[in-house]
Amino acid sequence: MSSSRERILAAAQANKPAETPLPTVPDFGGDASVERFTEVLGSIGGRVVWVANPQQLGPVLRQLFPDAQRTASPLLAATVPVNEQTPTDVLADVDLAVLPGEIGVAENGAIWLPEVNMLHRALPTVTQHLVLVLDHRRIVATMHQAYAQLPSTGGYGAFVAGPSKTADIEQSLVIGAHGARSLVVLLY
Amino acid sequence: MTHSSRAATFVADADRTTWHDETLWFVRQKRDKAVYAVPEFQDLRELASQIKEHTLSRLDEYLQQFEAKAQRNGVHVHWAADAQEHNAIVLDIIRRHNATRVVKSKSMLTEECHLNPHLIGHGIEVIDTDLGERIIQLREEAPSHLVLPAIHLKKEDVGATFHLHLGTEKGNHDPQQLTEAARQHLRAKFLAAEVAISGVNFAVAETGGVVICTNEGNADLGVNLAQVHIASMGIEKLIPRLSDLGVFTRLLARSATGQPVTTYTSHYTKPAEGREMHIVIVDNGRTQQLGRPDFRASLKCIRCGACMNTCPVYRRSGGHSYDFTVPGPIGAILSPNIDLKKHSSLPFASTLCGSCTDVCPVKIDIHVQLYKWRQVLTEAGEIPAAKKWSLKFMGRFLASPKAFGIGGKVARTGLRLLPYQLTHAKAFNAWAVARELPEPPKQSFREWYARTVE
């Protein structure tokens, strides 16, 4: 194993071209408005709903997901307690996960969701429906600005842009491939 | 078998060829729309190109930085010189966990290494979880496109496959219902999997983490439920800094499918508490390509597939006609490095129109490399004798004004006098197989010029 390592590194060193500079990536600016974020998220199958009081999500969620029985969330009184040790069969039954998002990206509707906000790493994709709660002041214009705000990506973290989808059957867009069937962003 | 002989099978179905052509052109148009909406898109292409070039120019150093960081994160790092070693490493990890149920998200590298047959041959159940990949796995076919692996199939084909393997209703070819059937079928596999294998879109030297981009969420679901994650990556996946992802995530999905970004852009840096993460770093011919100055730029590729969506030859010949893991223009410049003889016809599967180069998000000079491979192939004696001698003859002919003048006269008269069956005989005139010859003009340009101007 170590011999392959040495061989690959030696070959890379011997065959690499003369050094070229690493460019500095500028901040291109851009539109960081809530309107832009809302429009783009809508175009990729997600949905923005404004909430007046982020401490009182219950009524909004009951209205949006009247059929959700098993809910997991660190933000409200949930019905399924989830932590890092939660077994797969319990996770698999979650209807709705309501998690805090950190940064919204207006150009593509993505929201940064770090591991510490997920309860369990699999929860955002194993749940049938996903709700991310986001402070509208945390919306930036581009991915450059989003990465500039990340202290680190932690052990695991994802930009989530809309619900799970596929177009693998004759290029027909189908929402709800393997991950969450819907994504609602609750902005406050 | 050459590209053109395999393409002949594909184009025999004219309606399907037209449909394939139009479908991919539609994806190209979506790409254009997404690209034009970003004012700095051309700057981003230039930055991406420079970042990748810089990374290749210090590849050994970034590989070691990446390895050291990943190990500090608690990740097991393995090195594989070739496909065989890669497959042995993956099987060994699976065996050490006494696992038999494996899910795999999209990875062209594991296709390149033929990992699936290796694992299945050793009694491991390996399920491809990307919907397109699952469809072709059930049909025992190879992917025909980098990001749209089942683009050669129509919904009726998928309906028949799912009826046979997943028990969907016969004649049901509704994409929504077929996707739901696949969701249910694959969910059981996700929940039961002990090991999850993934590819890698980007490996960040600065953090030691890998980034995986999907629309379906199949990588996240598989990896985060399984006890063990094995990520396979080619050495060219490296980028130096976390902030470089700002450039590449803005380019990848827009170039690939015209989306502003993939649904999931997931960063895997450390294994979850009590779980294991492995990264297998694979060479398999890449350092050799790095040593070829004319062709090393192909290692900048981020596998978006834009070059195939725009390619007039790919769109009308289908991915399987390339008979290589990566089809299309980029495949035609990667494949001769792996096996010059076997893939000798691929650099000729191009009109050299340069559209591939125009859309490439990392500015690979694809059509220039295609042209250069043709010269390498000719010098190595790897082109058919008929092509070699007819081109030699044409070279002489076109270089002699006298021969050209006489030849033109003969052709103008001949085409008028000779019978249609002879001038359009398929045996002599491949041009006329699917086209009409133009009406022969009465005079040549030189004759017209002499009369009119002089």
Describe this structure in words.
The complex is a heterodimer of chains A (188) and B (454). Helices cover 24% and strands 22% of the residues of chain A. Chain A is α/β, with parallel strands linked by helices and 188 residues long. In chain A, the strands form three sheets. A five-stranded parallel beta sheet of chain A has the order 1-11-6-3-2. A four-stranded mixed beta sheet of chain A has the order 7-4-5-8. A two-stranded antiparallel sheet of chain A has the order 9-10. In chain A, strand 9 (165-166) and strand 10 (174-175) form a beta hairpin. The longest helix of chain A has 14 residues, at 2-15. Chain A starts with a helix and ends with a strand. The model of chain A has no long low-confidence stretch (mean pLDDT 96). Chain B is α/β, with parallel strands linked by helices and 454 residues long. Chain B is built from 22 helices and ten strands. In chain B, helix 2 (14-36) runs antiparallel to helix 12. In chain B, the strands form two sheets. A six-stranded parallel beta sheet of chain B has the order 1-10-7-4-2-3, with helices on both faces. A four-stranded mixed beta sheet of chain B has the order 8-5-6-9, with helices on both faces. The N and C termini of chain B lie far apart (53 Å). Chain B is globular, with a radius of gyration of 25 Å. In chain B, strand 5 and strand 6 (209-214) form a beta hairpin. The longest helix of chain B has 23 residues, at 14-36. The chains are: A alpha/beta (188), B alpha/beta (454). At the A-B interface, helix 1, helix 4, helix 5, helix 6 and strand 8 of A face helix 2, helix 3, helix 4, strand 1 and helix 8 of B.
